[in-house]
Amino acid sequence: MRLAVIDGTAHAVLGDEVADLKMAPMEALRRWDELAVADHRPTGALDLNRLRCPVPAPSQVFAIGLNYRQHAAETGSTLPERPMVFTKFPSCLAGPNDVIPLVPGTVDWEVELVLVVGCGVTAGQDISERTLQKAGASPQFSLAKSHRGFGPIGPWVTDEVDGADLALSTTVNGEVRQSNRTSDMVFPPAEILDYLGGICDLRPGDLVFTGTPEGVAMGMASPAWLADGDEIVTEIEGIGIMTNRCVGPR
Question: Which residue of 125, 150, 186, 224 has the fewest C-beta atoms within 10 A of its own C-beta?
């Protein structure tokens, strides 16, 4: 099943058509198993421009750092022995077509496979303001990655793919910046969920950003930080594409 959000309501995606489920998105995610086997009848055409954040109000949003071998190499970091966990606050979430409001500093892109607990997967960008992320004796990963709009996800949630080996990429203004496969992960999706579930109570609709591959601005000799007008295209094999435009200060 593919579940999208249109006009604040959950819809099942049926090829080029959609079926209005007539329920709130988070309720639909909690009832995923029931809805996945139901017979949905189309109620309209699929309009990608109308899609909104498919998981608008999760109770928890986790993220995993340094989870791609080549990304760890480009940042000169040692591979972690266990998942490196931080959080993004739910207020940062946005949709697959939403603008990304930039903030002063050094704003970077990070394509990520996002796990939706109890449901499936979606695509995401863990937008990061690196200056705050690195500031102080205890770097503020969570705050630096939780500005408004810094967590676009979409275009929908799906259970139709296995996240263990998918191609994923980021393109900025038509130039490919990131391109790898989820098989380069240090800790694969199932292992991440087992680890988190052994510590926290995971609830249907909770999100887990699983880390980013190499190719971020931070890894460049001369970083090309995101700027006003930049267009970010995020694509994950078997899931779909997001297009987000950056607005505001560099």
Answer: 224
